């Protein structure tokens, strides 16, 4: 009889506030902050400091170790997140649900950017491509190719008609999205360009790289009546004579540079929503905030700069005839407008300095009343900080830090009743509720390497890297006592089976035995726990792990010399020496019946030993890196192992078989703990995440799991076939190229198979119907029995059902794999689908694809098939009647839909105007007057500045005349 096992599934992941692989972003309301949490996106309430929602991929859609690599928030409630496998998910932040998944990139998504209307999404990737996505239609429009290295950032220009992309190939590219070509290539940077952004009014584009300065470009928009409409308020920087000679393809014109304070490379540059601030984050601990001066201030600053230059010239040079000439020249320039430079417009305001390296930052879209802006920072130590920026200072207003550790989680320990979980790190000990993942206590401590709950769960003991034992009061969250007991780091703590004490192993070659005691200090009413040293076992090398058998008969110590020494617990006499590992043993455990001992080593092997004679039952190559933790499930010979290869594996120690491989962690796993009943497992990792794996009621068999692993290996190698691996790489043209947005996946191949199967079944059913009609005409009356596999649908509806089940984004790749014979069959169905009236329902399953949606689907399928099989169709005689019919039908249907939609849009626009007139009638005059007052005020300010400047010039002229008279 084949033995069945119960499956373990990933249940929860907690402890991660912000991972380092992606950026953070505010939502459109400014109340919530979107932070990457490995494969999830956490939605944090900024004021409360709580994670209100977690955007997590479904278990069926989630692949192994697919970390979030980019986040973008739209002006609406939509959120886009890019992943390491190149996929993009669109989320509804209010509902917390995934609206669609877009597949197109072959490398990790590096940047995402919405346009102002949230109708388009641009994505850049490590595969050097830029893809434009239709968010409403949930499909990819086209792929822009031309960059020679990773795309680092994107920004829309000209109301979404143009796109600027930056790359590590040191070039900026400006793409025309209407004609889908690269219209400008900009060089000038001497190193990789890491970020690009534009202000809300699209006057300037700024780029940041490893160069010591920020480069600025002026934006030239489309021409209106033969004149450029860009920078209408600041055309002083570009002479009118140059506008006529500018290249019509030139969108960005170099404006100037600003020297940065920090010499590290730029990681990100961003304007805030109001456009008055520019932030430059470097790959270090600082963010430089620049003030964007308005027109009046920048002109005033330019005038002062010009006057200072003139003063320097007048004081340095001769002051006779030349001085008079200069004076006349200044007088001639007095009526002219000064030429603005970058330094006149952008002024360094503040520098934010964080305690750790900054991963990313984000401006809050809502400007607070008492400050200029609010900025959120994500640090590389799993921390979020919120800063308020004023004109004179920058203050930290909030920090989200209690829900996670600042560094690696070195140990996880469950209490006896499995209700509490303790994790240790370099500076704190945290107590968690393992079922909910909430942090109950945070206690400051040393660098904890191991931990243990005292029976009763009132106290816990932690061994530190400094050689101390810390006694922690769990209920109050305080460290009661710190005992300096070892000369080296405490590597292992294990409880004595009777619950009266514990054993510690240290790098000072000692194994020490301890007992619990309760004492009352003088001046205190309550008693607290302490420990006393009972006996000592001296070893000849560093002790890495200690294990005690459940029957308290043996104690085992793993040493740095790659051996395991087993002693009798009562007399501490030597019993066995287990040797065979080539590298030191890093973890060890003894089964509940004290028959087996398992050791995991840095040589990547697990060895199962018999504790009676010390014989090695089996040596298993378990992990592709060091084995860091191993634990038996209580009362069984099943065991879990975890390693630096990020995997948790489930084993049968009797059959020496691998049962399950649990994937989920994104970095090395340091520790593992199994509940007393074996119903869940907890792991702690270098990625600062604590993961819980729950046992389900679903049985599985070893042979089935082996077959499944082989299938996964085959599917993983699907995109790396022999043809694609050794095929010559396409040479990209310098001006860029356009390609299909989607990519071949397992889903597209499955969809192609389902369409072919539906076409074959429908063809057979149509033949049966024709034969039945023929028999009926001959007088042979018989009841027609439809094919039950077609679910009661007609052949046309059944094929439409198979086609409509294909995801919109995967339609092109699905039809690309369709053979020409089946494509010809599919074309014959299109005319029947297009002729069905809009008000007629096709079937219960095809309700979504009636009316305009059905016409849109038919047009897309016809267009893709004509593009793919153009040469075969024009040479196939049987295809001509179908194409002739489709030409007339589709044109008429599309025109009908277009007219109806245009009429509805015009009606909605008319209603919008009527509502605006009704709601705004009382305040229209007030608004006009307010605008007039503002314009008058700005004119007065400018006039006063001119008067003051004139007075200063007169004073300077008088002084120079007096000097001339005396000379």
From TrEMBL:
Name the Gene3D superfamilies on file.
YVTN repeat-like/Quinoprotein amine dehydrogenase
Task: Give the WD repeat ranges.
Answer: 61-101, 102-135, 144-185, 186-217, 402-442, 483-524, 578-619, 620-661, 662-694
Sorted alphabetically, which CDD domains does this protein's record hold? WD40 (cd00200)
Annotated stretches, region: Disordered: 301-335, 942-967
MF term (GO), any: snoRNA binding
Using the record's annotation, list all stretches that form the Small-subunit processome Utp12 domain.
797-913
Keyword annotations for this protein, in alphabetical order, are: Repeat, WD repeat
Return the InterPro entries for the record.
Answer: SSU_processome_Utp12, TBC1_cilium_biogenesis, WD40/YVTN_repeat-like_dom_sf, WD40_PAC1, WD40_repeat_CS, WD40_repeat_dom_sf, WD40_rpt
The UniProt entry, under SUPFAM superfamilies, shows:
WD40 repeat-like
Q: Which GO terms describe its cellular component?
A: Pwp2p-containing subcomplex of 90S preribosome; small-subunit processome
Q: Does the keyword Phosphoprotein apply?
A: no
Q: Which domain of life is it from?
A: Eukaryota
One GO biological process term: maturation of SSU-rRNA
Is Nucleus a UniProt keyword of this protein?
no
Q: Where is the composition biased (Basic residues)?
A: 301-315
Q: Which family does it belong to?
A: Belongs to the WD repeat WDR3/UTP12 family.
Q: What is the name of the protein in this document? A: Small-subunit processome Utp12 domain-containing protein
């Amino acid at each position: 009889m084949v033995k069945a096992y119960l499956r373990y599934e990933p249940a929860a992941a907690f402890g991660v506030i912000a991972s380092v692989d992606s950026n953070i972003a505010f939502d459109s309301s400014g109340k919530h902050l979107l932070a990457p949490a490995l494969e999830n996106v956490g939605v944090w309430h900024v004021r409360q400091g709580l994670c209100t929602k977690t955007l997590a991929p479904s278990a069926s859609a989630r692949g192994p170790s697919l970390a979030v690599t980019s986040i973008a928030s739209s002006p609406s409630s939509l959120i886009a997140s890019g992943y390491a496998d190149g996929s993009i998910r669109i989320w509804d932040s209010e509902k917390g649900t995934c609206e669609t998944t877009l597949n197109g990139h072959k490398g990790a998504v590096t940047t995402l950017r919405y346009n102002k209307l949230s109708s388009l999404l641009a994505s850049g990737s490590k595969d050097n491509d830029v893809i434009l996505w239709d968010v409403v239609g949930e499909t990819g429009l086209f792929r822009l190719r031309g960059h020679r290295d990773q795309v680092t950032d994107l920004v829309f220009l000209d109301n979404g008609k143009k796109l600027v992309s930056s790359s590590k190939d040191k070039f900026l590219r400006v793409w025309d999205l209407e004609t889908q070509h690269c219209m400008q290539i900009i060089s000038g940077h001497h190193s990789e360009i890491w970020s690009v952004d534009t202000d809300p009014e699209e006057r300037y584009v700024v780029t940041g790289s490893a160069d010591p300065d920020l480069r600025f470009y002026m934006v030239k928009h489309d021409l209106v009546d033969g004149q450029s409409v860009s920078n209408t308020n600041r055309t002083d920087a570009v002479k009118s004579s140059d506008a006529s000679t500018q290249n019509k393809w030139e969108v960005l014109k170099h404006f100037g540079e600003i020297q940065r304070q920090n010499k590290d490379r730029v990681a990100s540059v961003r304007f805030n929503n109001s456009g008055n601030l520019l932030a430059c984050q470097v790959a270090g601990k600082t963010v430089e905030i620049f003030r964007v001066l308005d027109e009046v201030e920048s002109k005033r600053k330019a005038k002062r700069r010009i006057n200072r230059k003139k003063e320097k010239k007048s004081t340095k040079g001769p002051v006779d005839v030349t001085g008079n000439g200069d004076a006349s020249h200044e007088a001639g320039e007095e009526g002219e407008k000064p030429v603005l430079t970058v330094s006149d417009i952008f002024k360094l305001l503040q520098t934010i300095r964080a305690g750790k390296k900054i991963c990313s930052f984000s401006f809050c879209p809502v400007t607070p009343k008492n400050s200029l802006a609010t900025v959120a920072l994500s640090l590389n130590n799993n921390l979020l900080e919120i800063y308020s920026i004023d004109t004179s200072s920058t203050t930290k207003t909030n920090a989200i830090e209690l829900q996670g550790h600042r560094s690696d989680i070195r140990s996880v320990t469950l209490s006896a009743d499995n209700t509490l979980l303790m994790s240790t790190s370099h500076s704190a000990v945290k107590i968690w509720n393992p079922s909910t993942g909430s942090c109950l206590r945070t206690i400051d401590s040393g660098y904890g390497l191991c931990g243990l709950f005292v029976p009763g769960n009132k106290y816990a003991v932690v061994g530190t890297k400094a050689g101390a034992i810390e006694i922690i009061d769990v209920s109050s969250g305080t460290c009661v006592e710190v005992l300096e007991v070892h000369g080296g780091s405490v590597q292992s703590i294990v409880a004595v089976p009777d619950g009266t004490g514990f054993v510690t192993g240290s790098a000072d070659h000692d194994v020490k035995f301890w007992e619990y005691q309760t004492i009352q200090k003088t001046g205190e009413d309550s008693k607290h726990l302490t420990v006393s040293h009972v006996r000592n076992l001296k070893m000849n090398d560093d002790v890495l792990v200690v294990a005690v058998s459940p029957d308290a008969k043996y104690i085992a110590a793993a040493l740095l010399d790659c051996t395991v020494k087993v002693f009798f617990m009562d007399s501490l006499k030597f019993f066995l020496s287990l040797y065979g590992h080539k590298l030191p043993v890093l973890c060890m455990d003894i089964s509940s019946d004290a028959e087996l001992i398992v050791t995991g080593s840095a040589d990547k092997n697990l060895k199962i030993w018999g504790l009676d004679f010390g014989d090695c039952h089996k040596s298993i190559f378990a992990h592709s890196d060091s084995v860091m933790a191993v634990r038996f499930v209580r009362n069984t010979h099943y065991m879990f192992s975890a390693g630096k290869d990020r995997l948790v594996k489930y084993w049968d120690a009797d059959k020496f078989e691998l049962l399950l491989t649990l994937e989920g962690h994104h970095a090395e796993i340091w520790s593992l703990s199994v509940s007393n009943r074996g119903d869940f497992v907890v792991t702690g990792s270098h990625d600062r995440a604590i993961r819980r794996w729950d046992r389900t009621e679903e049985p599985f068999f070893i042979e089935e799991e082996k077959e499944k692993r082989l299938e996964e290996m085959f599917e993983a190698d699907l995109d790396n076939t022999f043809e694609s691996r050794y095929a010559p790489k396409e040479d990209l043209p310098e001006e860029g190229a356009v390609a299909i947005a989607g990519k071949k996946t397992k889903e597209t191949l499955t969809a192609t198979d389902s369409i072919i199967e539906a076409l074959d079944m429908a063809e057979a059913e149509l033949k049966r119907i024709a034969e039945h009609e023929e028999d009926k005409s001959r007088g042979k009356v018989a009841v027609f029995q439809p094919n039950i596999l077609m679910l009661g649908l007609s052949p046309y509806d059944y094929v439409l059902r198979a086609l409509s089940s294909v995801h919109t984004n995967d339609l092109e790749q699905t039809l690309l794999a369709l053979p020409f014979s089946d494509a010809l069959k599919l074309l014959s169905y299109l005319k029947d689908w297009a002729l069905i009236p809009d008000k007629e329902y096709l079937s219960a399953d095809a309700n979504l694809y009636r009316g305009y949606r059905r016409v849109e689907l038919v047009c897309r399928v016809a267009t893709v098939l004509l593009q793919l099989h153009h040469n075969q169709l024009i040479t196939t005689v049987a295809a001509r009647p179908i194409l002739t019919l489709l030409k007339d039908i589709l044109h008429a249907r599309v025109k009908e839909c277009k007219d109806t939609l245009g009429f509805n849009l015009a009606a909605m626009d008319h209603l919008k105007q009527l509502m605006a007139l009704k709601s705004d009638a009382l305040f229209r005059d007030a608004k006009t007057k307010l605008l007039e007052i503002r314009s008058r005020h700005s004119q007065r300010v400018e006039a006063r500045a001119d008067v003051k400047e004139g007075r200063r010039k007169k004073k300077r002229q008088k002084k120079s005349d007096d000097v001339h008279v005396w000379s």
